[in-house]
Specification:
By secondary structure, the chain is mainly beta. The chain has a domain of 109 residues. The chain is built from one helix and eight strands; from the N terminus they run αββββββββ. A hairpin with a 4-residue loop joins β2 and β3. It is globular, with a radius of gyration of 23 Å. The relative contact order is 0.19.
Length: 165
C-alpha cells in the first residue's frame, strides 16, 4: 500500500512537470559575476594565469607578472579596467622595476579575455600584453616560466627563513 502511494505521488509529480522543460543545472560560477561583480578564483590558460580574491589579483603572462591591489569589479557588460603594477623583466633573472599598468578585459561565463598595458618608464615606451583567454577553475599552463602561488612577487621570495635568504 505504501509503495503504491509513493509511486502515485512520484508519477503525479512527473506528469505535473512534463508540461514545462526543466532548466538545466547550472552551478554558480565563483569569479564570473558573483554579488557585486567581483572576479575571484584561479583562471588559467596557455602560458597565462590570474589568481584573484575579493581584494587583489596576481597575473602571469609568459615570463612576466603583475599585481592588482584592489578587487577586479565587472561593469554591467562584464568588462573591467583596473590599475596595477607589472614587471616586464621577471624571469629568469628578476630585473624589475614594477611599472604602472592597466589590466583590462571582459568575462563571459567561465571565459576571461585579459590584456595588460604597461607604461615602461625605464624604456619610455608602452608595452601591450595579450589579449589572452583564461578559463575559470583551470590551472595556468605555463611553459618555460614558473608561476607563483603567492599574491605578490614584488617582495623577493625567501628560501631559508632561518638565515634570512
Amino acid at each position: 500500500m505504501r509503495v503504491g502511494i509513493a509511486l502515485t505521488l512520484a508519477l503525479g509529480a512527473l506528469v505535473a512537470c512534463k508540461g514545462s522543460a526543466p532548466e538545466p543545472f547550472q552551478p554558480a560560477l565563483a569569479g564570473t559575476r558573483p554579488a557585486g561583480g567581483v572576479i575571484t578564483g584561479t583562471w588559467g590558460g596557455d602560458n597565462a594565469g590570474l589568481m584573484a580574491d575579493d581584494t587583489s589579483a596576481h597575473v602571469h603572462l609568459g615570463c612576466t607578472f603583475g599585481d592588482v591591489h584592489q578587487a577586479i569589479v565587472l561593469d554591467a557588460a562584464g568588462r573591467f579596467d583596473v590599475p596595477g603594477q607589472y614587471v616586464l623583466r621577471a624571469y629568469p633573472v628578476y630585473v624589475g622595476p614594477s611599472l604602472p599598468s592597466r589590466f583590462h578585459g571582459s568575462v563571459a561565463g567561465k571565459v576571461m579575455t585579459l590584456s595588460v598595458t604597461v607604461s615602461d618608464t625605464t624604456a619610455d615606451t608602452t608595452a601591450h600584453l595579450g589579449p589572452v583567454q583564461l578559463i575559470l577553475g583551470q590551472e595556468p599552463q605555463m611553459r618555460a616560466c614558473p608561476i607563483c602561488r603567492r599574491k605578490s612577487l614584488l617582495t623577493p621570495a625567501r628560501t631559508d627563513p632561518s638565515n634570512g635568504t
